[in-house]
Every structure is written in structure tokens, then in C-alpha cells.
Amino acid sequence: MDQFKQLVNEAKNGNKEAFKEIFEGLNKRLFSYAFSRTLNRDDALDIVQETFIELWDSLEKFKYRSNEEFQGFVFTLAKRKLFRFYNTKDKTVPLDEKIIDGAGGYEMEIDNHQYLFNQINSLSPNYQDVLRLRYWSGMTFSEIASFLRVKETTAKVWHHRAIQKLKILLANYETI
């Protein structure tokens, strides 16, 4: 089903309502993906906003072929924004951001969450992308394959291998 085909064509012709529907259809998934990479709500929102601005500017040249290809195109724009974000990001972190407020059990949840992100970040970039796109952005394997420009079976294999490696890494973690 090509849910975006008509919207893309209308948005190409300047229809802002059609573009708004595209935004509403992809916004949460893009935010989840950006947040999984930045771990900062404001940075993720900025990246999503910049992605949609670039999408609006790029639609005129985009040739729609399928939903998967369109979504792959949009996520590629977001990935470029993330790349630029990390290349221009200030390399220092203010000390007050490192201080954890002594909130009992909440600290442990943050530690567990951070441990999981650290383990995901230790995987190969392809495995990281598959996990983030699958679980944070809710993409199908077909959509992931289109975004990563691989066959769907390759995306499934990478997902399986990433999960297996993650299970091994997480098995070493003991909760307190």
C-alpha cells in the first residue's frame, strides 16, 4: 500500500496540508530514531525539524517509487543531519550535566538504560542501525532494507545477529 504516494505528489505541488500529513505519519518514528542516537530530547527534536525542512526543499526533485523508498529517503536525510550534528557538536560536557541527583531507584533505571545503550553502541554500525530502526522507529524489515540499501533478508540476518550479540553482552550484566 502506497500511503505516501498521493501525499508526496500533492506536497511537491506546494500543498502544505499534504506535507503536514507526511509529517504526522513519520514524525514519531524519526524522533525515536534521532533520540536513540542523541539521547537528548532537544537535540532529537532539532534534528527532526531540520530533516523535515530539508525534505520540503528536496521533494521537488524526489521521484516516488514506493513507501519503503520514500521512508528510506527521509531516514537518510535524518542520518545526514545526525552525522552533521556529531561533527559540529561541542566536544565538552558541562560538569553539572554529569552530576546525578540522588534519587534512589531512579539512578538504577538510568544506569540500566545507559548500560543498554552502551552495549548497543558497541555493536557494528549496521547492527546498531537495524536495532534502532526496528525498535525505536518501528520500521518493518522491508523499510529497514530500503533505508540501508540492502536486501530484506540481509536486514533480517543483521537483526538476528545483533540480537544474539546483544544477548551475550547483556548476560554479563548483573542487576543490583
Could you please describe the fold and organization of this structure?
- 75% of the residues lie in helices and 0% in strands.
- It is mostly helical.
Keywords:
single chain, 0% strand, 176 residues
Short characterization:
This protein has 176 residues and is mostly helical. 75% of the residues lie in helices and 0% in strands.
Gyration radius from CA atoms, angstroms:
18 Å
Largest sheet: none
Q: Termini distance?
A: 47 Å
Poorly predicted spans: 91-110
Mean pLDDT: 82
Number of helices: 9
Task: State the shape.
Answer: globular
Question: Strand tally, please?
Answer: 0
Order of helices and strands: HHHHHHHHH
Structural category is mainly alpha
Helix content: over 70%
Proportion of residues in β-strands: under 5%
